[in-house]
Structures are given as C-alpha cells and as structure tokens.
Design goal:
The chain is α+β, with helices and mostly antiparallel strands and 183 residues long. The chain has helices at residues 23-27, 38-45, 64-73, 102-109, 133-136, 143-154; strands at 18-19, 49-50, 87-89, 116-118, 162-168, 175-181. The protein is globular.
Length: 183
C-alpha cells in the first residue's frame, strides 16, 4: 500500500442553499404538479437543503466543469494552480453531455493549464459518525471531499487519528471507502 498525503482540501457549492420547500421552484414541477413522492423521499434520506447550479427561472448558473474548477482553485491561496501540479483527476456521475468528455470540459475551464487531465472493521458508535447529507444534499462524486472538508473545518482532528470514509452511491448499491491517517 502506498502512502498518500492530503495537503489541502476544498469544496464548492453554487449559489445559496435551497430548502426542501423551495426545491421545485428550482428544479421544476412534474407535469405542472408538485411531486407526490418528494416529501417521502426527503423524509427518508434526511436532506434539509441542497445546492443547485440554477436559479428560480431554471437558468443554469454553473456547469459541472465550473463546480470542479472552483473546488480546485479553492485549494490555493491565490486561486491559481501552481505550475508544479502535473496531474488533475476528476469524475462525475451526472454528465451534462456525452461529448466532449467531462475531463475535457474541466480542462477547458483552465484554458492555459497544460497538464495531463485524467479523467476494517471497527466499532463505530454513532457519536463517532460525521454525516453532512442533511445540510449539503446528495453531491454525488464530490461527497467524499465535501464531507472531509467540513469534518476538518468543524471538528478537532488530532494527530494520529484515523478517519474511515464510507460514502454510499446515491442508490446505496455501492460504497466508496478510504482510510486516512492524520499526521
């Protein structure tokens, strides 16, 4: 196993958080009528607010590639990518289009950035859990880093601690797992 070090972490959310009662103002109605299952689904998953890359008029304010760009430049104090960065890895579970590919779109957000772009068991009692689904909503592939970013900013993480990330895919049919050691 190789050691990997996180030197910084960043996340980006577009616009202001949208409460559940306002959700359909942004994403629209179904056949001109409110969703019959929205309240049931939201009660089950516990989501209270979500972020949308669109406004109340259903106009796009941010594309997926712009989300990625803003999160990446948030890693650096001067909001620019240093020249010694040689690899940027990105992915999405929600494509806006088939072509060009998502990684190409993110690369396009950087214009002149000419680097390669590629697209245990433990007794975990509830008080050791950190969950932010209710406050940020389902943020798909960003969920791991969004949760880690908020955890580091809001909790006192001690040197020597271990963080086990267990992030379910939206349908909970697969999970992403990552074990981190705090140095």
């Amino acid at each position: 196993m190789r050691n990997v070090y996180l030197n910084n972490i960043s996340s980006f959310f577009p616009n202001a958080p949208v409460g559940n009662e306002e959700m359909e103002d942004y994403i629209g109605l179904i056949g001109g009528k409110p969703s019959r299952v929205r309240s049931i689904m939201l009660r089950h998953n516990g989501i209270k607010t979500q972020y949308y890359g669109l406004d109340r008029e259903h106009k796009i304010t941010h594309f997926n590639a712009q989300f990625a760009k803003e999160a990446v430049i948030g890693l650096f104090e001067d909001k620019t990518i240093p020249t010694d960065v040689t690899l940027l890895v990105c992915g999405t579970s929600t494509l806006e289009q088939l072509f060009p590919f998502y990684a190409t779109m993110v690369h396009g957000e950087y214009r002149n950035f000419n680097d390669e772009l590629l697209s245990r068991g433990a007794a975990l009692t509830k008080e050791k859990w950190f969950v932010n689904l209710t406050s940020v909503g389902d943020v798909c592939p960003a969920a791991t880093f969004v949760a880690l970013d908020e955890l580091i900013k809001t909790k006192d993480i001690k040197r020597g601690s271990q963080i086990l990330l267990l992030v379910p895919e939206s349908g909970r049919s697969s999970y992403e797992t990552l074990l981190l050691s705090c140095l």
